[in-house]
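DM from R.C. (forwarded with permission)

"hey, sorry to bug you on a friday — could you get me a structure for this? deadline for the figure draft is monday and I only need the backbone to look sensible"
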Amino acid sequence: MILSGKKYIYIGYISDAHGNKGKVVLCLRRYISPQSIPTRIFIKKNYGDLEEFRIKALKRFRKNELILKLNKVKDKNSALELVSSDVYIFEGDLPRKVRVEIGVIPPFIPEAKDVPEKLEEIGFITKPRGLQGAVAVVSPKDKEKIWTPGLKVYIEGDKGNFYSTEVRAVKKLRQMQDDIYLSVKFMFINDLDSAEKLRKRKIFVSAQQN
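My reply, with the result:
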């Protein structure tokens, strides 16, 4: 669900009130471990808007059910008003590991299924740059103009395979005699560990694309 440019992930619905002190039962419809649920959730109201609630306490109940104590829910009547309401979490509240765990993003760049017959090498990755998944790339000077956001690339794997992704951002760091040195951010690579897997990999594009 996209709302005001932000992505919210549906995880289940409020199935019942629990006790007389405002606790609610969350029935999970997406696999997520209780410890991975952020400290805030968003409940969809009848008019379609999402209302933010803070989780004050959480514990397992029955299979696929959790008992929540929410900050704005003070009594049983308030809890009953939320029954049947859908529950969302904000994707930005989740660390990458959890987003992989619940299937929001792939664990690594997807392997390319349809690789063009003719590929042209446009550079190679030397090392990670920073904690957000950027990598350092050395590319021939005559390929500088091809490096733009949206460029579809193929990164070599270990067994003759290729990973398919695209350039999200690129910055020229310096120019050498025959090459340029770039900082490149690829789609799906969002942390240092993932960037480390790309060290010393060659980068290709379709020969027709270039």
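R.C.: lifesaver. The chain has two domains: 2-101, 119-206.
me: no worries. The radius of gyration is 23 Å.
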